[in-house]
Structure prediction request, 213 residues.
Amino acid sequence: MQTAGPFVLGGTYTIALVVDGKTVDSRPLRVTEDPEVVLTSTERKRQYDMAMEIHALQPRVTDAATAHATLTRQVNELATTIADRGDVPADVKSSFDAFKTELAALAPKLALPQGGRGGGGGGRGGANDGLMAKIGTAKSGLSAGMTAGEQTTRAYTEVKNQAPKAIADLNATIAKGTTLSATLAKYNLTLTVPSPVAAVPAAPVRKTSSGQR
Prediction:
């Protein structure tokens, strides 16, 4: 999946050499627009801003998908062990099963693309419908140098709308996992729960020209 940021817009930029946090040298750099790109300057700027929004969301979604994969792998490994343990009370087993079900329900949004390690976990939807796959679709389409198509704009909209809730839901599950982990430890069962994922900050209202809506 594409992890680099979008190509910068045409203009003059300052390139700085930074050593130990101090700028020791800088030079201007002129970036010329690709003459083969048919987008107007307004369209370029709009799609660049959209691509940068998705690029900014990508690390949070990646962290969430990784945390989900880590928990899913552990829960799947523990499931058989807990089911076979006669010394684990029924209420603890029920709590574990409920946690496993809740975690699986997040998979359609947070599973790693192409069934990445630990990203199974059940649930409907398939990894290609997840947020990480949609980020790749949105960034690629918005950076392609042509007018974004329906698939690209749909992926962009869905990532922006779905990522904050998916991360909040995962963090709620992580909180439950922390409590469950302490309970399981009493029976020498280990569930290592990742730290909560940083919440997605509220996006500023994107300014548009009079010709845009």
